[in-house]
Design goal:
Elements lengths: L13 E4 L5 E4 L5 E4 L3 E3 L6 E3 L3 H12 L13 E5 L2 E4 H12 L7 E5 L5 H9 L4 E6 L5 H5 L4 E6 L9 E7 L8 H5 L6 E12 L15 E2 L2 H10 L2 E7 L6 E8 L16 H25 L3 E4 L3 H9 L6 E4 L8 E2 L2 E5 L8 E4 L3 H9 L7 E6 L18 E6 L1
């Protein structure tokens, strides 16, 4: 087992979960599978992480070789609901937030690292059509798709890219959690920022998003404190960091550390990372047991959602799912794990829908579905609202709740 942190290279990783047999996980492109993985916490930078060994690297390589982004929405990006910046596609919510903090001139250069099929580039062009846009990906799968987008001037690909320009804005959205040695990944970008340029980083927030631990190809699981340490170790200073703009995600706006004035924010240290991680695995055990119990009891079983948590629960009940339900219209009529994705009003009358989300989120979903003949089941956990920015704590006394809409 590797003994050094892949984020800060500190020795002495503290193991927090090492199953004796393969464990059910889900790839970031929402494919359920079994894998042999282990989790640990670094005592120095406090990053919760997968143990980056041969098993993990082989698994990640296999996932990326067949990656199918947002397949359950025919390639469309996820939609967010009831955020502080309204509802809409995730990149639209992000850019609404950024425009409040960064004065983006009519013209400039944007480099989007991890651009995939170009959702952020498309949204950015709509709000700043005078900018020159550039994308980067590890493979050339989406090269032609991205180059065909309006405003795109270039597409870079590969492990070792010598970017020929300087950029006024560099975005790395949902990239760093995939990268072993993210410090080495970030440092070369310092020299690619134009004077006054900013780097925007988005990662899942492990203190609001437990299921991130079960995303197979995510090797780092950040909170505010560990992300700030990573940025500083990379020569960057976050001039703004928030866990409130996009649910369950951290957004950091950074610039080269020299001359940057960092703002104070809470480091969310109420629950130590190792305890948080162990609590979350206890939570997963409770969710698995509850879902299996409900599945065994009912004749028509659906799962709320069509992303990571839903796929994981479906895997844990042996694939015995009749349908998935969602509120994102871009997913209606699509399929996940061979099962249809339905709007809640289209669920069969009398169906039972298991909600693998916190009690607060479950009750909001049920409240919006009062007129429907659906039997909802959910675990009552994380009663603290994550939008308030308070550290969520899984309840030790997990209770299976039942609500008829």
């Amino acid at each position: 087992m590797p003994t050094h942190c892949h984020v800060c290279d500190s020795p002495g990783l503290e193991p927090v979960h090492a199953p004796r047999r393969p464990i059910g996980v889900v790839s970031s492109d929402v494919q359920a599978l079994d894998a042999r993985l282990a989790w640990a916490v670094c005592p120095r930078c406090a990053t919760i992480q997968k143990v980056v060994d041969r098993d993990w690297r082989g698994l990640a390589d296999d996932i990326y070789a067949r990656y199918d982004i947002n397949h359950q929405a025919a390639g469309d990006e996820p939609r967010l609901f009831n955020t502080a910046f309204g509802s809409g596609p995730r990149t639209e919510i992000l850019l609404k937030y950024l425009l409040r903090l960064i004065d983006l001139p009519p013209a400039g250069r944007l480099l989007d690292i991890g651009c995939s099929n170009g959702n952020l580039l498309k949204t950015f062009h709509r709000i700043r059509p005078g900018w020159d846009l550039y994308g980067y990906e590890i493979a050339d799968t989406w090269r032609e798709t991205v180059l065909a987008l309006p405003g795109v001037r270039g597409f870079h690909v590969g492990d070792d890219v010598a970017y020929p320009l300087r950029y006024d804005l560099i975005t790395a959205c949902h990239v760093l959690e995939h990268v072993a040695n993210p410090t080495a990944f970030l440092r070369p970008l310092l020299g690619k920022l134009a004077p006054g340029g900013r780097l925007v980083v988005i990662v899942p927030n492990i203190r609001q998003n437990p299921i991130d631990l079960l995303i197979a190809d995510h090797c780092s699981h950040f909170d505010v404190a560990s992300l700030e340490k990573l940025l500083r170790a990379s020569g960057l200073a976050a001039t703004d960091m928030t866990a409130r703009a996009i649910p369950k995600e951290l957004i950091a706006i950074a610039e080269p550390a020299s001359g940057a004035a960092a703002s104070p924010w809470s480091h969310e240290v109420e629950v130590p990372p190792a305890k948080l991680c162990r609590d979350y695995f206890h939570l997963f055990d409770g969710v698995r047991e509850a879902a299996r119990a409900v599945r065994a009891e009912v004749s028509c079983f659906g799962i709320m959602g069509s992303s990571i948590a839903a796929a994981w629960v479906a895997h844990e009940v042996g694939g015995q799912v009749d349908f998935f339900a969602d509120e994102d219209a871009s997913r209606f009529g699509q399929r996940l794990m061979g099962r249809p994705i339905l709007p809640l009003p289209a669920a069969p009358p009398g169906a039972t829908v298991f909600i693998p989300m916190s009690g607060a989120v479950a009750e909001r979903i049920i409240g919006r579905s009062r007129a429907l003949p659906i039997d909802f089941r959910f675990l009552d956990w994380n009663r603290i609202d994550p939008v308030a920015g308070v550290v969520p704590r899984p309840r030790a006394d997990l209770q299976l709740r039942r609500r008829r809409a």
